[in-house]
Design brief:
mainly alpha, 13 helices, about 75% helix, globular
Length: about 300
């Protein structure tokens, strides 16, 4: 296990370097000059050139990139052009909000998805099965921003159960978590159903039924446990995607998370903040996938991590 973890960590190094290079090159193609945006429209050309020199934007691209990588290795993600604060400090302010939102969203995804998938699989071809799969298809198809607006309309404006926007209490979490978790739950439900149907056709399940083992024990103790490996993969990917893909939901509910910060940084051409944020999100995504791979061994002892 230790060798596997070390090998996976080493494999992340070229991945993160590749991510930083791609983001750096893409940001260079975005129209606009960060120095002009920062100096303001009334600044003279001399002031803009001086600011560009201070920011190192007058250097060749390869020098800018290698200077950035050198600083990252030393733990310095740079300084935000917009706020003149360390990028790491900016990220650490917003990251906990996005992680909390992603966590509760994935809780909704797992609880609703597993429950719906198991019920659908155990009642195959019944009205319940068809209804759940239709609901799952609708859940996958609904845009998150539309669902969020509908939840606000009914549960915040009409019934006044939850706050319209903001962050800080559990009541603020409920609607955004439902908005993000619903589409993920639909995917998990479909995957759980498919995996469960494959498992319950196995010989050992038929043997357990022949011995008179209770149906609930067979489903949740034997079948579900052995059907979890592909489901865990989907959940891990969903959680990783939530870390960097919550911008629409954060905008709808006025949540100051990492997604909104990245969009604002792109608009302002704040290259250090964009690069640092995406690098952190990529590292977290890799960490989540590592945890998912390790969890396979705890779910199924037969899985070979090597």
């Amino acid at each position: 296990m230790f060798i596997f973890i070390v090998r996976r960590v080493l494999q992340t190094i070229p991945v993160l370097i590749g991510v930083s290079l791609v983001v750096f090159l893409i940001m260079q193609m975005v129209p606009g000059d960060p120095a002009v945006l920062l100096a303001g429209e009334s600044a003279t050309e001399e002031q803009v050139n001086q600011l560009r020199s201070q920011l190192g934007l007058d250097q060749p691209l390869y020098i800018q990139y290698f200077d950035y990588i050198k600083n990252v290795i030393q733990g310095d993600l740079g300084t935000s052009i917009r706020s003149n604060r360390p990028v790491l400090d900016e990220i650490l302010v917003r990251l906990p909000v996005t992680i909390e939102l992603a966590f509760w969203s994935i809780v909704v995804t797992v609880v609703l998805g597993l429950l719906a998938g198991v019920i659908s699989a155990t009642k195959q071809r019944s009205l319940t099965d068809v209804s759940i799969m239709v609901a799952a298809l609708i859940g996958v198809s609904l845009p998150n921003f539309w669902l969020g607006l509908m939840l606000i309309l009914y549960f915040s404006v009409q019934f006044q159960i939850f706050p319209v926007s903001g962050w800080g209490t559990f009541a603020h979490i409920v609607l955004p978590a439902l908005t993000l978790g619903t589409s993920g739950a639909a995917i998990v439900a479909r995957m759980t159903r498919s995996s469960m149907l494959e498992v319950i056709r196995q010989d050992y399940i038929r043997t357990a039924k022949a011995k008179g083992v209770k149906q609930r024990y067979i489903v949740y103790k034997h079948a579900l446990k052995n059907a979890l490996v592909p489901v865990i993969t989907v959940v891990g990917l969903q959680f990783g995607a939530l870390l960097g893909g919550t911008v629409l939901t954060e905008s709808v509910f006025a949540i100051n998370g990492l997604g909104r910060m990245i969009v604002d940084a792109i608009r302002m051409r704040d290259l250090p903040l964009v690069q640092g944020s995406i690098l952190v999100v990529s590292a977290l995504f890799v960490l989540v996938n590592l945890i998912v791979d390790i969890s396979y061994k705890f779910v199924d002892k037969k899985v070979d991590l090597n």
